[in-house]
Amino acid sequence: MSQPKLSIQLNCPLPKLDFDVITLGHGSGGILTHRLLDTGVFNILKNDLLIEQHDGAVLKFDGPVAFTTDSYVVTPIFFPGGNIGELAVNGSINDLAMCGAIPEYLSLSFILEEGLRMDEFWEVLLGIKKASEAAGVPIVTGDTKVVERGKGDKVFINTTGLGRIHPKASIHANRARPGDVVLISGSVANHGVAILSVRQGLEFETTITSDTQPIHKPVLNLLDELGGDVKFLRDPTRGGVATVLNELAIQSGYGVEIIQKDIPVSEQVEGACEMLGLDPLYVANEGIFISVVSEAQSTNALKILQRFDPASSIIGRVVADHPKQVVLHSRIGGKRIVSMLPGEQLPRIC
Amino acid sequence: MSQPKLSIQLNCPLPKLDFDVITLGHGSGGILTHRLLDTGVFNILKNDLLIEQHDGAVLKFDGPVAFTTDSYVVTPIFFPGGNIGELAVNGSINDLAMCGAIPEYLSLSFILEEGLRMDEFWEVLLGIKKASEAAGVPIVTGDTKVVERGKGDKVFINTTGLGRIHPKASIHANRARPGDVVLISGSVANHGVAILSVRQGLEFETTITSDTQPIHKPVLNLLDELGGDVKFLRDPTRGGVATVLNELAIQSGYGVEIIQKDIPVSEQVEGACEMLGLDPLYVANEGIFISVVSEAQSTNALKILQRFDPASSIIGRVVADHPKQVVLHSRIGGKRIVSMLPGEQLPRIC
């Protein structure tokens, strides 16, 4: 799993460079940096905006723009279902979508550890290319730094995203009202369990893969069709579903009620969580989102989400009771408060 | 020098948190992350846009926008004249200015190493606040990740900047023509020598400090007053003046000629470079820039630059001879080709 092999067909051959690993010189800003960038990175990711300028890209916007940043430090950098490059592209695309924005541009900044194997670097870069092309969101500017062996961990990536706000979007937790419905766009906990399975060297009977994927298309469909009836959007990455629902409760000032049996968890993930002592509600996801939609439009919202993923589900609602708290109705008929993730659960999950 | 002390007065007391160091839990996305951000980071950096949203900021622009990103890995994180926080803010502000843009917004993303002392983190954050306020460019969105001890190095920072293009700006190396004049906005090599002096534990007779500062004001003055006669702007950070001039030569297709005696280097820096075996032309700077201006406006350009720093100087010109090469006329009357920095000189200088 941690042995990368080039999985993507390039139109051009991979750059031939006379080094096998990243060296400190690749971060110097001099000839080695230029060779790495010009013959490697720019060649693979090329587009008109990226080629134009070294210091920055010049973009045009019409109307309000969302701006979002994330650094990715996931370990291992290759995992079932993806790699850190895909994750970094999809992650910032998804953060834009959560603002009600149409993802348009990304920046890309690497912090590489001296000694990183070039074939691993290319594989990450190809993951970036694949994800960027699949979502139709180009990388338009970037940066590369190198730190000494033992001062980093192979590859850290920052992506920062820009996109214009959807004309019908009005997304804010304080627009939630009692009666509004809480939906989820797919089954939970796949990403965290996939990462943990590799880290622990565990072999599950069936392979659980990360759900890393762009989620802007279902979001934009919701906004196109339901407009202001979509009130809140957030992707349950670090801290999982429980943390996002707590953010919703705290920021709206209302309570949130969820029904355990309606929360989609695949059998394999459920089994793995039991084995590992994890609560799926706290496990990170990378390709699903939670939305709050008016009760009147909840059936339509569910239909839209199910066009993209049949596991999408209505998992609960906003309530006037127990303000700022999330209460779960369990399968066995009990009720319990679901708190925010108290400390670390899975470090470096994204 | 590496012992931080809080050097900035806050209007509010520093957040009281019941931990002395950064732990993995601060990167989990759960309660600890929220406490670090809500009571710490947001409290110190607060502004309307930052408070509004966790997933991203929503901005408005009129006309074309520059977008630039940089990750900062400088070591040590505290150095004479600044810290990594100030450097990260000033650096991306300067990259925007080099695009001919008016810096408007920054994102801020931390990769913290487990065990980082909280007082060091606050000091970096205060450096960010100070630089952001001094330049009038707010931090509007951000991210915080934590990696295990030994997988990072105290603090890495990514800043990504946005700003609208100055209406009179038309900045591109391919606008340079033979006869155009090359200017520099201050004396060279201060940043690199300041960093190296701390790293090596050297004590120079007088203290050389980093030149980290925002340079958008002289740039905007040049653009206001000289418009399209300003053809090229670039700040000589990693790789130094020599690398930027080589980029100019390669990208314009013309030659560049520089006069050694006209390149401003302070006596202390010159002495330190001799002692350390460094060529000041390859040493990183963080608060100066190189510009190419039409011959007709060169005197005016120099006057504008000297209002901000009397050390500003005309250091050479674009020539039709030796295309794509930089030639230096030395003090002793010789000529030599100045190549791009061949490999590493000072790793992790920014």
List the helices and strands and how they pair.
The structure is a homodimer of 350-residue chains.
Chain A: H1 31-45, H2 48-52, E1 57-59, E2 65-72, E3 78-79, E4 82-83, H3 84-98, E5 101-113, H4 118-135, E6 139-147, E7 155-165, E8 181-184, H5 190-199, H6 216-226, E9 230-234, H7 240-252, E10 255-259, H8 267-276, E11 290-293, H9 298-308, E12 313-319, E13 326-329, E14 335-337
Parallel strand pairs in A: 5-6, 10-13
Antiparallel strand pairs in A: 2-7, 3-4, 5-7, 8-11, 8-12, 9-11, 10-12, 13-14
Helix pairs in contact in A: 1-4, 3-4, 6-9
Which terms would index this structure?
homodimer, 350 residues, alpha+beta, 60s Ribosomal Protein L30, Chain: A, four-stranded mixed β-sheet, 9 helices, 31% helix, 23% strand
Descriptive account of the structure:
- Two copies of one chain form a homodimer.
- Helices cover 31% and strands 23% of the residues of chain A.
- Chain A has 350 residues and is of the alpha+beta class.
- Chain A folds into two domains: 142 residues, 2-Layer Sandwich (60s Ribosomal Protein L30, Chain: A); 165 residues, Alpha-Beta Complex (Phosphoribosyl-aminoimidazole Synthetase, Chain A, domain 2), CATH 3.90.650.
- In chain A, the strands form three sheets. Chain A has a seven-stranded mixed beta sheet. Chain A has a four-stranded mixed beta sheet with strand order 2-7-5-6. The first copy, chain A, has a two-stranded antiparallel sheet with strand order 3-4.
- In chain A, α1 runs parallel beside α4 and α6 runs antiparallel to α9.
- The first copy, chain A, is globular and about 65 Å long.
- Chain A starts with 30 loop residues before the first helix and ends in a 13-residue tail after the last strand.
- The N terminus of chain A is likely disordered.
- The interface between A and B is large, with 81 and 81 residues.
- β2 of chain A pairs antiparallel with β1 of chain B.
